[in-house]
């Protein structure tokens, strides 16, 4: 293993101590002390103040000597109080960087002051080794692919298909095991994953060599053999949650009265007209030109979800008002996510998402755009992801022995899941939990009422309450209400 950063502060401390006395030998620095240095961007963002950064070398193909290596970037936020342990945070995706956690890290550290927080960039994301040179930080468009970078990037991925196959879920889980072994300290140890990070955490449980005291799964992905909730069924999940939102409007007299004949009848009529090609005018007024996709996107935050009835009224009565509505009302509801893009190298990796999606998390990689269109007929809330997947052609890697393998020797697990999650449906999460419990796992579930995907961002009161109980081996609450006062600012 190569540690490519030297901790300057630790070195100076050792030098000063060495000059002060020669009567006792200095203890050798630990791997953690040698690895971390002050982050170059620590003064650029208030929330990154005091953070430390490291780049650690890991095998490209674990278990295959001489196959090359990848560099893994890790940011550490040292414990604010007396250290009792550490938490390893796994970002979603696949394709998200660890930077998705940065905007709200201050609140998390304050709630758990005794824990070092480690946030790695998965291989293929952020400052870690990327799939192609067009996604590297020093490329013309930075870590985002743009313009003429697409063709060469995909060509590079196909030409080096054996290398590309190394960016699998299993190797990503091996990376976590490697990093904890190299950088982890004493005390209690937890892994916290969001969305795809939950799947990666569960793969980690299958192959880990290091010990952990617990796994926290925020917005749990379905099992890989769940043929109803995989990525190819993302629009089905959006529509199921969207229909629940419509039903809640119907049950509210004031909301239902806004629509002639009631919201359910009006919505059904609108979708029938769209599917029949009678509302082509909406393409001019809706972001992306697809009202179903726009409505699906509005399920992603509580604020935008609350505006769905307004969007439907405008689509039915005054569609020309929709552009201003989306600009002034809907877009600000996503400021929390947009803030992540301010960090360098935060761009989502579409190549990693396509590679892992087609190889593992999409049960129907052979679907065509026509297949998707047929399935989405009659739906009112859809995801653009299902169609995008049909255009993403990547060199698939072979599913290994861990794919669909049963769980064994699981550590204690806490699942946090919103009951209005439009990306990972709560019923898919319940099925996954049942598999864990069948394997003898001690699994706790906190259902966060009205929360969408990624409870971390929308219900910090629930996250804190359940984690505190989990950390002291008590049973977390079975349910928790989203508290707007605890929402990130």
Assigned CATH superfamily of the largest domain: Alpha/Beta hydrolase fold, catalytic domain
Domains, number: 2
- Based on CA atoms alone, the radius of gyration comes out at 24 Å
Q: What's the story with the biggest beta sheet?
A: 10 strands, mixed
CATH topology of the largest domain: Rossmann fold
Helix proportion range: 40-55%
Low-confidence stretches: 1-29
The CATH architecture of the largest domain can be named as 3-Layer(aba) Sandwich
Beta-strand segment tally: 10
Q: What distance lies between the first and last C-alpha atoms, to the nearest angstrom?
A: 40 Å
Task: Figure out the total of helices.
Answer: 22
Note the overall shape. Answer: globular
Task: Find the structural class using helix and strand composition.
Answer: alpha/beta
Strand content: 5-15%
What does this structure look like?
The protein folds into two domains: 8-229 and 401-486, 3-Layer(aba) Sandwich (Rossmann fold); 235-338, no CATH class. The model is unreliable at 1-29 (pLDDT under 50). The relative contact order is 0.12. The radius of gyration is 24 Å and the shape is globular. Helices cover 40% and strands 12% of the residues. The protein has helices spanning 8-20, 31-35, 105-111, 150-159, 161-164, 169-183, 196-207, 234-251, 253-256, 263-275, 282-285, 291-297, 302-305, 308-317, 322-330, 335-338, 350-361, 369-376, 384-391, 426-438, 455-458, 460-471; strands at residues 37-38, 52-59, 69-77, 85-90, 115-120, 188-194, 214-218, 413-418, 443-449, 479-481. It has a ten-stranded mixed β-sheet with strand order 1-2-3-5-4-6-7-8-9-10, with helices on both faces. It is an alpha/beta fold and 489 residues long. The chain starts with 7 loop residues before the first helix and ends in an 8-residue tail after the last strand.
